[in-house]
Amino acid sequence: MYEGAVQDLIDELGRLPGIGPKSAQRIAFHILDAEPEEVQKLATALVDAKSRVRFCEICGNVAQGVQCQICADPRRMDTVICVVEESKDVVAIERTREFRGKYHVLGGAIDPIGGIGPNNLRIRELLTRLQDDTVKEVILATDPNVEGEATATYIARLLSALPIRVTRLASGLPVGGDLEFADEVTLGRAFEGRTQVGV
């Protein structure tokens, strides 16, 4: 335990995902050792990101304006939507350069233990996007873990009555892993070998 502001800084850093107590302490002391200008740049970047970054009104991805760059890009296919849990998954898939359609970011996965149900996700917005018969395929690219599988199964059941091909990313992704940490080759192969979801 440190005094006052130092401990407050460590505590706040420790609340960030993936940052344990020792990492929080290391980061805090790095910040304290840094030049004031560097610390100010970090603080400004945090405040700017929080105040300027929004979520795309179409897909839910992070954006600077009303729409994200992908939704605003006329070269992207409107006929295929890739459903992901988080914006970081969009970045992971974009690195593969395999996918030329558009995305739909759910904002998480179904997790009853964590108190997240279908109504807490952007599933209703997905169904709205599918109303005009433009979309011919929905790729379910949720994480290959229990929550991701439950979410994919739930969405597949909802879409089973629609004249839309529903596919799931193929094997190659580790079970229990996150899309964010998959390498480009593995993720690219998973896209190439995706299979139709039978309900």
Automatic annotation (TrEMBL):
<keyword id="KW-0234">DNA repair</keyword>
<dbReference type="InterPro" id="IPR000093">
    <property type="entry name" value="DNA_Rcmb_RecR"/>
</dbReference>
<dbReference type="InterPro" id="IPR034137">
    <property type="entry name" value="TOPRIM_RecR"/>
</dbReference>
<comment type="similarity">
    <text>Belongs to the RecR family.</text>
</comment>
<dbReference type="Pfam" id="PF13662">
    <property type="entry name" value="Toprim_4"/>
</dbReference>
<feature type="domain" description="Toprim">
    <location>
        <begin position="79"/>
        <end position="174"/>
    </location>
</feature>
<dbReference type="Pfam" id="PF21176">
    <property type="entry name" value="RecR_HhH"/>
</dbReference>
<dbReference type="InterPro" id="IPR023627">
    <property type="entry name" value="Rcmb_RecR"/>
</dbReference>
<dbReference type="GO" id="GO:0008270">
    <property type="term" value="F:zinc ion binding"/>
</dbReference>
<dbReference type="GO" id="GO:0006310">
    <property type="term" value="P:DNA recombination"/>
</dbReference>
<keyword id="KW-0479">Metal-binding</keyword>
<dbReference type="GO" id="GO:0006281">
    <property type="term" value="P:DNA repair"/>
</dbReference>
<keyword id="KW-0862">Zinc</keyword>
<feature type="zinc finger region" description="C4-type">
    <location>
        <begin position="56"/>
        <end position="71"/>
    </location>
</feature>
<dbReference type="GO" id="GO:0003677">
    <property type="term" value="F:DNA binding"/>
</dbReference>
<dbReference type="InterPro" id="IPR015967">
    <property type="entry name" value="Rcmb_RecR_Znf"/>
</dbReference>
<protein>
    <recommendedName>
        <fullName>Recombination protein RecR</fullName>
    </recommendedName>
</protein>
<dbReference type="Pfam" id="PF21175">
    <property type="entry name" value="RecR_C"/>
</dbReference>
<keyword id="KW-0863">Zinc-finger</keyword>
<keyword id="KW-0227">DNA damage</keyword>
<dbReference type="InterPro" id="IPR003583">
    <property type="entry name" value="Hlx-hairpin-Hlx_DNA-bd_motif"/>
</dbReference>
<keyword id="KW-0233">DNA recombination</keyword>
<comment type="function">
    <text>May play a role in DNA repair. It seems to be involved in an RecBC-independent recombinational process of DNA repair. It may act with RecF and RecO.</text>
</comment>
<dbReference type="InterPro" id="IPR006171">
    <property type="entry name" value="TOPRIM_dom"/>
</dbReference>
<dbReference type="Pfam" id="PF02132">
    <property type="entry name" value="RecR_ZnF"/>
</dbReference>
